[in-house]
């Protein structure tokens, strides 16, 4: 049986929209902010300190993806890096959320795994995820650097972020597509610095 697959116009529109957004990002200040994040994260990891990563929903998956690239490998053979995903332990997440609150599930883990001089990378397309904001507040109290990847403006996370990487869009799927490009770049640059 022959099946003819035609690209729906909605897919064409989505691809064109994504291309326009990626083009605008390539000439924006986000490149400089991402390079600042590379510098901070490289310094943290080269000192053996932890990089904590967190997010909710699709951003939780992105947090796991980032952690997998840095603990495992991105492109080069090298030693493992001290990167912990706060979104990936269902026993911790569900126990703490059930007994205390979901709003503090990441902050509690920052208390457990964070160290002065370390860093936290939080992903939130809205920039308003209460549990990520609380984690950033706890991290700052502990002397850690805070790096946010968000949508346009950074939401409430802007006020608690040392480095804000805010994609110039309010549309969640578009923000997530750009986040993937940015954190792949981040992983590649960190790995290049730390595998020499």
Could you name the CATH topology? Rossmann fold
- Rg, Å, rounded: 17 Å
Biggest sheet statistics = 5 strands, parallel
Count the domains. 1
CATH superfamily: Glucose-6-phosphate isomerase like protein, domain 1
Question: What share of the residues does DSSP label as strand, in percent?
Answer: 5-15%
- Which architecture name does CATH use? 3-Layer(aba) Sandwich
The CATH C-level class name: Alpha Beta
> What form results from the Cα inertia axes?
globular
Structure class: alpha/beta
Give the overall average pLDDT.
94
Which residues sit in consecutive blocks of at least 5 with pLDDT less than 50?
A: none
Number of helices: 7
Number of strands: 5
| Strand arrangement in the largest pleated sheet | 2-1-3-4-5
Percentage of residues in helical conformation: 40-55%
Spell out the helices and strands N to C. Answer: HHEHEHHEHEEH
Characterization of this structure:
This protein has 196 residues and is of the alpha/beta class. The chain has a single domain (28-194), classed as Glucose-6-phosphate isomerase like protein, domain 1 (Rossmann fold). It contains seven helices and five strands, in the order H-H-E-H-E-H-H-E-H-E-E-H. It has helices at 9-26, 30-46, 58-71, 90-99, 105-113, 130-141, 172-194, and strands at residues 51-55, 83-85, 119-124, 145-150, 163-166. The protein has a five-stranded parallel β-sheet, sandwiched between helices. It is globular and about 55 Å long. The protein starts with 8 loop residues before the first helix and ends with a helix. The model has no long low-confidence stretch (mean pLDDT 94).
């Amino acid at each position: 049986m022959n099946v003819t697959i035609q690209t729906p116009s909605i897919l064409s529109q989505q691809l064109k929209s994504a291309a326009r957004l990626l083009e605008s990002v390539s000439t924006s200040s986000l490149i400089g902010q991402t390079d600042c994040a590379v510098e901070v994260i490289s310094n943290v990891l080269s000192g053996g300190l932890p990089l904590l990563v967190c997010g909710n929903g699709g951003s939780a998956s992105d947090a796991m993806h980032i952690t997998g690239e840095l603990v495992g490998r991105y492109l080069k053979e090298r030693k493992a890096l001290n990167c912990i995903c706060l979104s990936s332990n269902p026993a911790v997440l569900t126990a703490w959320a059930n007994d205390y609150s979901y709003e503090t599930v990441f902050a509690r883990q920052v208390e457990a795994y964070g160290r002065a001089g370390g860093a936290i990378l939080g992903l939130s397309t809205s920039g308003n995820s209460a549990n990520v904001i609380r984690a950033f507040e706890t991290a700052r109290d502990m002397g850690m650097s805070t790096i946010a990847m968000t949508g346009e403006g950074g939401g409430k996370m802007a006020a608690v972020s040392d480095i804000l990487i805010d994609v110039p869009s309010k549309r969640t799927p578009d923000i997530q597509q750009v986040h993937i490009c940015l954190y792949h770049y981040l992983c590649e640059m960190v790995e290049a610095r730390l595998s020499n």
